[in-house]
Amino acid sequence: MEKLFARLKELRKEKGITQAQLGKILGVSENTIAHYENGRRWPNYYMLKKLCDFYEESADYILGFKDY
Questions:
Q1: Cα–Cα distance between 8 and 12 in angstroms, integer?
Q2: Single pTM value for the model
Q3: Domain locations in the chain?
Q4: Smallest Cα–Cα separation from 5: which of 61, 57, 62?
Q5: Which value, in Å, is the radius of gyration of the alpha carbons in the chain?
Q6: Distance between CA atoms of residues 9 and 17, nearest Å
Q7: What tens digit of pLDDT does each residue of 38-62 get?
Q8: Phi, psi (rounded to 5 degrees) for 42
Q9: What is the Cα–Cα distance from 68 to 23, expressed in whole angstroms?
Q10: Is the four-CA dihedral 62, 21, 16, 19 of positive or negative sign?
Q11: How far apart are alpha carbons 33 and 24 in whole angstroms?
């Protein structure tokens, strides 16, 4: 699941926002975003849905099952 963690960081950087900004948008702390990107914590189903909606990407892409 290393792709998941790398993808989350990559997508955030592509948007040009900080972890703190993303946390505010999603309603979680900056630390939570850092934990997702560093592999210390997994986003639950609801957070994965929020991430997919925000980044306009599929769960398969974010989870690393597809590279498109």
A1: 6
A2: 0.90
A3: 2-62
A4: 62
A5: 11
A6: 10
A7: 999 999 999 999 999 999 999 999 9
A8: -100, 140
A9: 26
A10: negative
A11: 10
CA atoms within 13 A on the CB side of 29: 4
Are 34 and 62 a contacting pair, CB within 8 Å? no
Question: pLDDT tens-digit profile of 13-29?
Answer: 999 999 999 999 999 99
- What Å distances lie between residue 46 and 2, 6, 9, 14, 55, CA to CA? 20, 20, 18, 22, 14
Q: In the numeric block, which tokens belong to residue 31?
A: 């630390």
Residue ranges in 1-68 assigned as alpha helix (H)? 2-15, 19-26, 30-38, 45-55, 59-62
Length of the chain: 68
CATH topology of domain 2-62: 434 Repressor (Amino-terminal Domain) (1.10.260)
